[in-house]
């Protein structure tokens, strides 16, 4: 018999680094199963695709210009410099890709699209999939818990009071076991919602469309979020959740999409000098810049604490005068892009001050490193509470980007914490690392879910376009 033509899957990532990186890790798994794949990309993100395309040259790319918007700067795809207040506009503008993608799908008469896999920030791809009669899987680069909180909030919006106080505690009776949150910790996307405002309403609708998807594929694993898997299915009405993480980094995590400042071997050699689990790694991810006063206090506290550390920072971070020279024998500063996965995997690294971006969280857990939470924005506060209060694999150190910690106190906390060995939270973090490794091993829970998902996709009819 003639071999069956593989289903053609259209992949649509959300053009922000923290979303694209795990999306590409996921796409890599599909490419290993010989699906016919096309990936939509905006021009400035094309370079992020290189590691995947070099491994899987048969993947097609569909490069579409970022839709112009009168409210956004011309080079907005480079979203690093986008103020949080413009993020809703950014999400809203992307729906401008609906028509060009629709036209492209209709033109694919030789190899028609059988399914769409798109980021959960691109809810408008749901009506698009419906219009062309194919199923859509929503991909989430965040925690199931964080995703559920965001969707719950947007669903219950009519009850929201505009006068909600920043410190008012919001509870989630519909999510069993959920911590409570001060209003200010809930997603900026939700807090900036204004009833009747067209952008707000479009962003809300964008998330609500996800409920109609074929299912959610989430970069997480059962041992970490098992407690929160039922609510999205039972209460929110998602049809299916596939927990497929932690997805293995395509390039073994060597650069995770950035252009490295210095070589990985330099920092690895530096780390080789120190005892097991004695070094603190600090990074606030690919977007956040630590405000000047916070950076000053953190630097001084590090110096006073005497701990050994690697601090990966954005170029523009301002440090106290002479700091780098004074700490040269204790700490290493990486300005620009750090080889984060290599650092976390080094046996000398035991602790990680992180903003709790979900990729950083998974990388830390996988490495069995204990997290010190310092959430700044987006879903990070929700992730931090999941780690500290629900799964108890992390310790809070500070939060937010406005208030400044007290220098002496922070120095004391860092000194005492980094010297700890074998505490309950460290043991739990280590155990979670073992669970993460087990989940993605052949036969493990995430391995099986991913296999199941890919089998579902394989079963799809190769569609005829007429
Ligand atoms: N990253 C890196 N080097 C850096 C900064 C970040 O390799 O100097 C990687 C990090 O390993 C992670 C991703 O970039 O994979 C950041 O994603 P995360 O979800 O943690 O945070 P975001 O950048 O989206 O805020």
Automatic annotation (TrEMBL):
Organism of origin: Carex littledalei
Transmembrane segments: none
Keyword Cell wall biogenesis/degradation: no
Protein family membership: Belongs to the UDP-glycosyltransferase family.
Domain of life: Eukaryota
Molecular function in Gene Ontology: UDP-glucosyltransferase activity
Keywords from the named record: Transferase
PANTHER family linked: FLAVONOL 3-O-GLUCOSYLTRANSFERASE UGT89B1 (PTHR48047:SF8), GLYCOSYLTRANSFERASE (PTHR48047)
CDD domains: GT1_Gtf-like
Keyword Transferase carried by entry: yes
Coiled coil: none
Name of the protein in question: UDP-glycosyltransferase 89B1
């Amino acid at each position: 018999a003639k071999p069956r033509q593989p289903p053609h899957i259209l992949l649509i990532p959300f053009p922000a680094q923290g979303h694209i990186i795990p999306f590409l890790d996921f796409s890599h798994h599909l490419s290993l199963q010989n699906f016919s794949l096309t990936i939509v990309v905006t021009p400035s993100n094309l370079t992020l695709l290189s590691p995947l395309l070099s491994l899987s040259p048969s993947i097609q790319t569909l490069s579409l210009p970022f839709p112009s918007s009168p409210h956004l700067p011309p080079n907005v795809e480079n979203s690093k410099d986008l103020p949080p207040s413009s993020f809703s506009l950014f999400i809203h503008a992307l729906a401008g890709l609906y028509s060009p993608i629709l036209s492209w799908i209709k033109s694919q008469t030789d190899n028609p699209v059988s399914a769409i896999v798109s980021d959960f920030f691109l809810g408008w791809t749901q009506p698009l999939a419906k219009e062309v009669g194919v199923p859509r899987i929503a991909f989430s680069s965040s925690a199931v818990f964080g995703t559920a909180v965001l969707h719950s909030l947007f669903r219950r919006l009519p009850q929201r009071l505009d006068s909600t106080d920043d410190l008012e505690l919001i509870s989630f009776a519909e999510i069993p076991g959920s911590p409570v949150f001060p209003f200010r910790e809930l997603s900026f996307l939700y807090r900036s919602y204004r009833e009747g405002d067209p952008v707000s309403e479009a962003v809300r609708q964008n998330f609500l469309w996800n409920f109609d998807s074929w299912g959610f594929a989430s970069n997480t694993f059962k041992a970490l979020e098992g407690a929160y898997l039922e609510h999205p299915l039972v209460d929110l009405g998602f049809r299916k959740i596939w927990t497929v993480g932690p997805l293995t980094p395509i390039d073994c995590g060597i650069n995770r999409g950035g252009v490295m400042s210095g070589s990985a071997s330099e920092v690895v050699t530096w780390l080789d000098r120190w005892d097991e689990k004695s070094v603190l790694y600090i990074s606030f991810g690919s977007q956040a810049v630590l405000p000047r006063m916070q950076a000053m206090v953190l630097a001084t506290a590090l110096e006073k604490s005497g701990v050994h550390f690697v601090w990966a920072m954005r170029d523009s971070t301002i440090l106290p005068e002479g700091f780098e020279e004074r700490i040269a024998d204790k700490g290493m500063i990486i300005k620009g892009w750090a080889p984060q996965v290599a650092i976390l995997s080094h046996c000398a690294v035991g602790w990680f001050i992180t903003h709790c971006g979900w990729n950083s969280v998974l990388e830390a857990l996988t490495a069995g490193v204990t997290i010190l939470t310092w959430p700044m924005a987006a879903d990070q506060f929700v992730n931090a509470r999941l780690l500290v209060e629900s799964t108890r694999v992390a310790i809070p150190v500070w939060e937010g980007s406005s208030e400044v910690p007290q220098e002496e106190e922070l120095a004391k906390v860092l000194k005492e914490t980094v010297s700890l060995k074998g505490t309950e939270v460290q043991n739990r973090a280590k155990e979670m690392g073992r669970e993460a490794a087990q989940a993605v091993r052949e036969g493990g829970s995430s391995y099986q879910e991913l296999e199941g998902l890919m089998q579902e996709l394989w079963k799809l009819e190769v569609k005829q376009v007429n």
